[in-house]
Specification:
- The chain is α/β, with parallel strands linked by helices and 508 residues long.
- Helix content is 28%, strand content 27%.
- The strands form 6 sheets. The chain has an 8-stranded mixed beta sheet, covered by helices on one side. Strands 9, 10, 13, 14, 15, 16 and 27 form a 7-stranded mixed beta sheet that branches. Strands 18-25-19-20-21 form a 5-stranded parallel beta sheet, with helices on one face.
- Residues 125-193 form the Thioredoxin-like fold domain.
- It catalyses: a ubiquinone + NADH + 5 H(+)(in) = a ubiquinol + NAD(+) + 4 H(+)(out).
- Residues 209-493 form the FAD/NAD(P)-binding domain.
- NAD(+) binds at residues 349-363.
């Protein structure tokens, strides 16, 4: 049995939602993965009379495709989609059976209008929390457009192929045999990259808002909900809805929620905002702010949005190491998510840069996958003692404190790291095959320099009501000088900024 009893109970409820017949075509050999894949297909067929299994030969063995009777949808899984990808399999079964995918009609029309042949391949790992978003989006595109096909490839199963193509980060997408993108992408982001995104003309007729929120993370979502509930005209413009939460794996400190994961929380945030009359403008990046009759926000596509008040909630991003070699070898041995990319470094020697909680947690995660982990900290470790104790108990982890990184070395990909011992001033070099950077965050506020007052760290300076130095402009969340950067604190500051903006509107 591939599926345990609890998963089967949950799955049986989903399979009852199937609307028509689905044919699973299995391309299997004599290897263990093929045997387990065939067993999985047979278990699915035994659970629903709508699922039929047949043997075939596909481009890769082992793999299987999910099809309508007499029609290939172009959806293929090269590997066994369990772990984080199990949801991708369930959705593929439901959608191929006839259930409509959850996508706006405008997006569906864009997909159907794409002309030409597009053969996508997504290299993924089953522990990657970002991969399912890409896999599911491309599966939907394959389902809606006969010129599009998509194959999910488990990098752990097709390790030789992954190494031959120098794939060292997941998800990595190839289009028609060439590199297309690496990292998390939504359905809308893929369409933008294919040239089907909105341009400035789509924003030309928008009336001024009462409150315009810039940023769609926890602070922005909270601000949007609190503003909309006041009955005022509210808009939210975001580079990507969910923000940095989308890159977060386990969340265990959100009060009343024992455990959740970043992408799931981001989805619920967006769903909650959509319960209100909020104009959501996703995949749009702001590049300028100016106070005139209204406060004007200029977008990178050239559009200008106007509002009586603005709430800045642009969040933060992972901080780069800013050393020679980092840019050259990004996704060629340098990674920023141990949980996602760790399986690609199985059996190898890797380094983690960073002595805080995120660095130590990454070292612990990687120790169970790779041959050896070397953790390099610029000073002494600052992680919680319980995490340090856990890490130091692992036999394949070496900790080097007082290490100043000088260079990440390589040829076509990473082959080592050079550091200076800050106590002895001696230069040291370690040969390795991967580097994971875990050194905190930097606020997304470069575009605000010269307009809004920032501190030396680039954080927006706010008062207790979330006000900035510009009347009518407020800020919330990780882009501000708030002392602590936590999801729950961002949500609270978003609510504070929205109430501050509403009070400003009343008084002015």
């Amino acid at each position: 049995m591939i599926l345990d009893g609890e998963i089967k109970t949950q799955l049986s409820q989903y399979l009852q939602l199937m609307e028509g017949e689905v044919h699973i075509k299995v391309s299997a050999g004599t290897d263990n993965v093929s045997r387990d894949m065939t067993a999985l297909a047979d278990e699915l067929a035994a659970m629903s009379s709508n699922i039929k299994v047949e043997q075939t030969t596909l481009e890769r063995t082992p793999s299987f495709s999910v099809n309508r009777p007499g029609e290939d949808t172009g959806i293929t899984f090269a590997g066994i989609p369990l772990g984080h990808e199990f949801t991708s399999l369930v959705l593929a079964l439901l959608q191929v059976s006839g259930r409509a995918p959850k996508a706006d009609q405008k997006v569906i029309d864009q997909i159907k209008a794409i002309k030409g042949d597009y053969h996508f391949e997504t290299y993924a790992s089953l522990s990657c929390h970002n991969c399912p978003d890409v896999v599911q989006a491309l599966n939907v595109m394959s389902l809606l457009n006969p010129g599009i096909t998509h194959t999910m490839i488990d990098g752990a199963v097709y390790r030789e192929e992954v190494e031959a193509k120098d794939i060292m980060a997941v998800p990595t997408v190839h289009l028609n045999g060439e590199f297309f993108n690496s990292g998390r992408m939504s359905l809308e982001e893929i369409l933008v990259k294919l040239g089907s995104g909105p341009d400035a003309s789509e924003f030309a007729d928008k009336e001024p808002y009462d409150v315009l929120i810039v940023g769609g993370g926890p602070a922005g979502a909270s601000a949007a909900i609190y503003s909309a509930r006041k009955g005022i005209r509210t808009g939210i413009v975001a580079d990507r809805f969910g923000g940095q939460v989308l890159d977060t794996v386990g969340i265990e400190n959100l009060i009343t929620v024992n455990y959740t994961e970043g992408p799931k929380l981001a989805a619920t945030l967006e769903e909650h905002v959509k319960q209100y009359n909020v104009d959501i403008m996703n995949l749009q990046r702001a590049k300028g702010l100016e106070k005139k009759e209204f406060i004007e926000i200029e977008l990178e596509n050239g559009a200008v949005l106007k509002s009586k008040t603005v709430i800045l909630s642009t969040g933060a991003r992972w901080r780069n190491a800013d050393v020679p070699g980092e840019t050259e070898y990004r996704n060629k041995g340098i990674a920023y998510c141990a949980h996602c990319d760790g399986p690609l470094f199985a059996g190898k020697h890797v380094a983690v840069i960073g002595g805080g909680n995120s660095g130590v947690e990454a070292a612990i995660d990687l120790a169970g996958i790779v041959k050896h982990v070397t953790l390099l900290a610029r000073s002494e470790l600052k992680a919680d003692p319980v995490l340090q104790d856990r890490m130091r108990s692992l036999p394949n982890v070496t900790v080097i404190e007082q290490a100043q990184i000088k260079e990440i070395t390589g040829t076509d990909k990473v082959n080592g790291i050079t550091y200076i011992d800050r106590v002895t001033s001696e230069e040291q070099h370690i040969e390795l095959q991967g580097v994971f950077v875990q050194i905190g965050t930097v606020p997304n506020t470069e575009w605000l320099r010269g307009s809004v007052e920032l501190n030396r760290s680039g954080e927006v300076i706010v008062d207790k009501a979330g006000s900035t130095n510009i009347p009518g402009v407020f800020a919330a969340g990780d882009c501000t000088d708030s002392k602590f950067k936590q999801i729950i604190i961002s949500m609270g500051s978003g609510a504070t900024a929205a109430l501050g903006a509403f009070e400003y509107l009343i008084r002015n």
